[in-house]
Specification:
GO terms for molecular function: GTPase activator activity; small GTPase binding. Pfam families: RabGAP-TBC. It comes from Basidiobolus meristosporus CBS 931.73. This is TBC-domain-containing protein. This protein is an all-alpha fold. Helices cover about 65% and strands about 0% of the residues. A hairpin with a 5-residue loop joins strand 1 and strand 2 (about 290-294). The longest helix is centred in the C-terminal third of the chain and has 19 residues, at about 265-280. The N and C termini lie far apart (about 45 Å). The relative contact order is 0.10.
Length: about 290
């Protein structure tokens, strides 16, 4: 795809990928079609049948907490078994990550769009191993915690009045936004809007998480500024995502207005700096294998 064609494709993504094409485009844009190995998914499940692990225990606890109001994931719904197999297979595929809470919601959304569970498995693999930074779900969640510091820094630069307001009230933004990032917004915004966000996530990568977070704050800035105490701020931060009245405005602010201010290079530079600072704060050393130890 040439540069001009790619720009046109991104414009189409901003408008929302048609539902009939979404599964295929996610599969291709995530890189899953390149990673997919015929028979590998089935072999993982078959080879580890009956095995036990800490990851499997946590998966079982989270299965019935996953989109419980959606008929596909009701107690006897078809989605529960598919979700179990996808999460279990991933835990054996990548034992260094295994399973982390939030992955159940990500896999569930993939299954709603990509009815083929093998497609969903490989797309999950690419999200965690390729699109998100390394160690996003491992190492005391160090990288994902660092991203919350990056977000706070971006808010200070782009929305200084709001940042000052939060500081004056003692609001810890990360207490709310950490789960936004860890679940890629699956736990906080309506499904229709979520699919639009994910359309851009698969094309633009992890930088889209920051753009959406700042866009949510920017489009709700005046209401947040009117909050007189931390309790009302936290309440609004959690409630403002449940019903997004102006979806098109949110998408435009996130992926057009904020694009010049929140770039991949900027996010990466800030993340690297914060990871280094956090390692020093927590006394974390990298051993010869690149693993973290305290």
């Amino acid at each position: 795809m040439g540069e001009a064609e790619y720009k046109e494709f991104k414009k189409l993504v901003h408008a929302g990928i048609p539902a009939i094409h979404r599964a295929k485009i996610w599969h291709e844009c995530s890189g899953a079609y390149r990673r997919k190995k015929p028979g590998y998914y089935q072999e993982l499940i078959a080879q580890h049948e009956g095995w036990e692990s800490v990851s499997l225990s946590q998966i079982e606890l989270d299965l019935h907490r996953t989109l419980p109001n959606h008929e596909f994931f009701e107690e006897n719904g078809l989605g529960i078994e598919k979700l179990r197999r996808v999460l279990v297979a991933f835990s054996w595929h990548n034992p260094s990550v295994g399973y982390c809470q939030g992955m159940n919601l990500i896999a569930a959304v993939l299954l709603l769009v990509q009815s083929d569970e093998e497609y969903a498995f490989w797309t999950l693999v690419c999200i965690i191993e390729n699109i998100l930074p390394s160690d996003y779900y491992t190492g005391q969640l160090l990288v994902s915690q660092a991203d919350q510091r990056v977000l706070k820094e971006l808010v200070k630069e782009i929305l200084p009045r709001l940042d000052s307001h939060f500081c004056s009230l003692g609001v810890d933004l990360g207490a709310v936004t950490f789960s936004w990032f860890l679940t890629i917004y699956t736990d906080c915004i309506p499904m229709e809007t979520l699919l639009r966000v994910w359309d851009n996530f698969f094309v633009q990568g992890v930088v889209s998480l920051f753009r959406v977070a700042v866009a949510l704050l920017k489009t709700n800035e005046q209401k947040l500024l009117r909050c007189q105490d931390s309790g009302s701020v936290y309440h609004h931060l959690k409630s403002m995502t449940l019903e997004i009245q102006e979806e098109e405005k949110l998408i435009k602010v996130a992926f057009v207005t904020l694009k010049p201010y929140i770039k991949h290079s900027v996010v990466q530079s800030k993340r690297d700096r914060h990871i280094c600072q956090m390692k020093q704060e927590f006394g974390i050393l990298d051993d010869a294998t690149g693993e973290h130890s305290i």
